[in-house]
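Colleagues,

Please find the record for the two-part complex below.
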Amino acid sequence: MTKPKLAVWKFASCDGCQLSLLDAEDELLAVAGAIEIANFPEASREVLPGPYQLSLVEGSITTPHDAERIQAVRAESEFLVTIGACATAGGIQALRNWADVAEFTRSVYATPAFIDTLDTSTAIADHVTVDFELRGCPISKEQLLEVVNAFIYGRRPAIPEYSVCVECKRRGTTCVMVADGTPCLGPVTQAGCGAICPAYNRGCYGCFGPAESVNLEALLNEWRRLEVDEATMVRALRTYNAYAPEFRDASEKLEASL
Amino acid sequence: MTAASILDRSDFDQLLALLVDEGYQPIGPILEGGRIVYGPIDSSSDLPAGKTDLHDGGMYRLVDRQDDALFGYNLPSDSWKQYLFPPQTLLWSAVRSGGSFSVNPPTSEAPRYALFGVRACELAAIDIQDRVFDGAYPDPHYGSIRERVFIVGVNCVQAGGTCFCASMGTGPELTDGYDIVMTEFIDEDEHRFLIRSGTTAGGDVLARLPLAPADPTDCSHADALIAEAATGMGRTLDTGGIKELLYENAEHPRWDDVASRCLLCANCTMVCPTCFCATTEDRPTLDGATAERWRTWDSCFALEHSYIHGGPIRVSVRSRYRQWLTHKLATWIDQFDTSGCVGCGRCITWCPVGIDITEEVKAIRTEEAAHAHR
């Protein structure tokens, strides 16, 4: 039996998510045993031609060239999985969606005329059909291995979509919002990181994006009670998943009230 | 009830040492990062002496006491569920051999916990989980831990801001189900425990401790302290006809009101000492040679929890909150012949937005009464 072929694609991103695969040290040989790593430039210069049974797509769409390239990637991928906040929500670079990109290029580049970029940073799913979205900035190595494993066995990945609070409670971390009055995005953020920040007495930063159902209005009302001002709330919502619809809508509503 | 004795604070560590000698791993309240949680204890110096906790809806603060009471707090943020029904349990593992496979139960031996400082509401919660897991289909994983547990109960001599065990008839005094029970006294320069056994195992331990006989005034003193706690509950819940009340009000507008406040974060179910929902996950290795089946805590507040063929059946916030509260206070009675609520108040304290189960029921009851009156 021939092994399914894996390809890893990069768009606008920092490479951190795809490196999670190389970071899977103990499991890497097992991955290579189960799937043929056919196109993964971070790992090997040898690139085998498509089609690919499994494509992992990292990064967001920020240039006209990438908007075309993702169509080609989709065409030669049977099962396409986006990995990370950039690919699933546009990433931190989606902050440009609220700014003047021409002004950015003028102030950053010596010859802005050479820069051919879009006004927006958008998720892969805004351009092509995506079969599964893996969240996180960065993604969790364990969750990535679960997705690969599930693909190999043809089952649904066991990736929970409930809140970070569930992970806090499972590991026995006391709620930082209730016990310390620390504003936390955990109740509206999807689990997956293992609730790292609250375990170190920090509020959740929302790296895994909105949970499956969220009530941001109720959470932000509680933040107001904790004396968090509106501008701080907008900043909290506009990080790695700023353009995830639930976070985006909430921050735009807040900004309109400023 | 066995005769009560007096254990002096200076001899308290002998009780711990005896249980360690018996092969128990003592778990009790400890201070961790400014909160009281349950964790392994080696000596009484691990206990939160001189600390107490303030509770209100969505609010918890640790403060100093005027004395050095070891059990002078109300309730830790976590519950004994963390130990008896752990967040993750390996149910079995499978090994492929040739064209077949074999399924093996977990090989690790169940721990032997001595639970220190079990409150009356918490023992009631353990009793409820016993009914859940030891019913028509006994759960061997829960059973193997539970049957080895030694329970050192401590009566409450104060009540917290979100406590309502008196309403639920579960406390503040432990009446049975413990191996040993204590009431802590601190007067002037004396720091003592009124102590008695509830089982033979408990009696055997007490027989090896340097105890003094209790006199009748000690017992009446303990009774008075417990009675005081009963009147100091921060919350009350009228349970009269509660099953019918909730069954008749499935469409009450209050469910929409609470839905506007609920975060769907699932904290209430995670901290509830009786909530028992779990999901199972199969974890095969990439080479397909072995696989494990794990059970992990789940929540009725998660969309996935109500997923059946065709999609989830409880999509709205309203339907999920209603499911939880109605199960806890009403359908639980039909299912397990007991309320699912022990009045510990954890769901109130640890709800990040302070949703209060007693207030929700009160609102439904009051509005229904007003409606009936018209």
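Chain B touches chain A through 47 residues (CB under 8 Å).

Comments are welcome before we finalize the supplementary table.
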